[in-house]
Amino acid sequence: MAEGFTVVAPEKVAVGRYAGLSTGSWRWIVALALIALASVLPFAVSNYHVFELTLVMIYAIAVLGLNILTGYNGQISLGHGAFFAAGAYTAAILMHHYGVPYWATVPPAAFICFALGVLFGLPALRFEGPYLALVTLAMALATPQLLKYFDTWTGGQQGINLIKPLPPPGLGIDRDRWLYLLVLAVLLLAMRIAANMLHGRTGRAFVAIRDQPIAAAAMGIHTARYKTLAFGTSTLFTGVAGALAAIVIGYVSPEGYSLFLSISFLVGSAVGGIATIGGAIVGGLFIQFVPNLANDISDAAPGAIYGLAMLLFMYAMPRGVVGSLGPWVARLMQQLERHRVGVRRK
Amino acid sequence: MHQLLQQIFSGLAAGAIYASLALALVMIYRATDLVNFAQGEMAMFSTYIAWTLVNAGLPFWGAFIITLLASFLGGMAIERVVIRPVENAPVLAAVVVTIGLALIFNSLAGWIYSYTVQDFQSPFPDRPLFGALITTRDLGVIGVTLVMLFLLFAFFRFTATGLAMRAAAQNPASARLCGVRVGRMLAIGWGLAAAIGAAAGIMVAPVLFLDPNMMGGVLVYAFAGALLGGITSPVGAVIGGLIVGVTENLVGTYLIASQLKLTVAFALIILVLVFRPNGLFGTAILRRV
């Protein structure tokens, strides 16, 4: 290799230094700044916007769950609305029939949805591609019917009305903002857990099974166990989102968990970036705001505008917003680094 | 016994419609490995075209033929304009595009024709036959489906274009090297699927009444039929569609109140798939490592 010339490998760039701080530190600074921004945001906007943003974060948690299964493990689910419903109804039934405080309903909802996901994941091991899509689709379609059928628990068609929780006294903030901060905390925790899992051994196993199932099995990855685990964790996240939605909206009814919800999760996941963690937030924003925006643009045919938005997003960024822009940002950083290194050498 | 036979026959009539739409799904799946979630809404939109033509005073079968031709061209155009840009994109992007397309058609139909339920006259009179075993209308629906299947079979078996389409679906690269214009074959496949769907829509409209959400349920059953038969097998799709139609009808009549009809019908289908994960007639996917 010629003297005075070094090839800057990407991993070298990742530990490069800017203004005296390592890239890792910068990442933390940016993350903390974003978290701080997200924490003060509710105090700058109206009550209704706070509610909307809370829903965005809830959808983001659900989409994150779907990303684990569909994005990292390659199992397409058209039925995550069913697990969202399971979480929501677990929370609602515990609060309504047993008087459990709202914050204590989230762990049982997580546990139940994890168990349901594992149970459902076992037969799903036999299905691939469109077959799994059909099985999960069937579940999404059956959910409203089942919820109406077992009406002693679910309140049938009317659903269950919940009393909205009060913020802890002495904190000096109102209910909507308290719930916003609570959901934000759960979202951050969920993203942290997902990142730890997916960037480690388990995540590599998931991706290996998605890309090369036979080679993965040959290398000693227990395919069935990891696929079931992917299903369970995925539905756990989505179930937690469902429980939070029940608490925040204060109402559950069968019509809220139709096939459309499941499809929305899939769309949000694809638009945000299917095998990314940050994409879940973009997906949440898309699910919550684009239909409303479409309504504003055209009263007559909002569905057409929403559909058109999906098409345009997929044409422009087939790997989703984060999936497509992420590599671009990384390249930009690399170029900056090269530039900086070059400058110093002169 | 008489009632059972009656239910089976009316199930077959519904099944014939599921079978047609299932066939349309299979055609697109074989060619592009894509489940077209817009198939039902495309069929619904075609049915509105037929409805407009009939209301404009055309005879039924004239409107039927014109609608099928228009749908064929429309289907080709959709493949060219909407689907081709995501041909090489990740599967999920293509899936989302078909979902978006379904939304667009649904919304456009609601905008142009309103969401009011419209009456669509059947070309077949509704008279009981063979001691009320089957109505002439059901017989007509089954008959139209059979004729369409026969024509399709003949097309794929005996024409050069049909052969080229099969080649393009089976091995695009080799087909292209042999001079088959694969892109055009894909477009024709979408056109044919749209035309088959249009026929199914026109047949089902007198039963379900015409509105923009008419095909939602039908598509789900067609999807189930296609997979039950094996998504790679056209014959399987037809038989699967018929089985789904009969099962749905029998479950609704004998087993359980209509509230849980869908759930039970799907549970049965999934039970079958647990034992035959590639469908009844599908071939297992072989992988090279």
How would the blueprint of this fold be written?
The complex is a heterodimer of chains A (346) and B (289).
Chain A: H1 10-14, E1 17-18, E2 21-22, H2 23-40, H3 47-72, H4 80-98, H5 106-124, H6 129-149, H7 151-154, E3 160-161, H8 175-198, H9 201-211, H10 213-218, H11 223-249, E4 251-252, H12 259-272, H13 279-297, H14 302-316, H15 321-345
Helix pairs in contact in A: 3-8, 3-11, 3-12, 3-13, 4-5, 4-6, 4-11, 5-11, 9-11, 12-13, 13-14
Chain B: H1 2-32, H2 39-55, H3 60-83, H4 91-113, E1 128-129, E2 134-135, H5 136-158, H6 160-170, H7 172-177, H8 182-208, H9 215-229, H10 234-255, H11 261-275
Antiparallel strand pairs in B: 1-2
Helix pairs in contact in B: 1-5, 1-8, 1-9, 1-10, 2-3, 2-4, 2-8, 2-9, 3-8, 5-6, 5-8, 6-8, 9-10, 10-11
Strand order of the largest sheet of chain B: 1-2
CATH level 1 class label of chain A:
Mainly Alpha
Oligomeric status? heterodimer
Structural class of chain B: mainly alpha
Strand content of chain B: under 5%
Mean pLDDT of chain B: 85
Ends apart, CA distance between termini of chain A: 19 Å
- Indicate the mean pLDDT of chain A: 85
What's the end-to-end separation of chain B, in Å? 54 Å
Return residue spans of chain B where pLDDT drops below 50 for at least 5 consecutive residues.
Answer: none
Give the percentage of residues in beta strands of chain A: under 5%
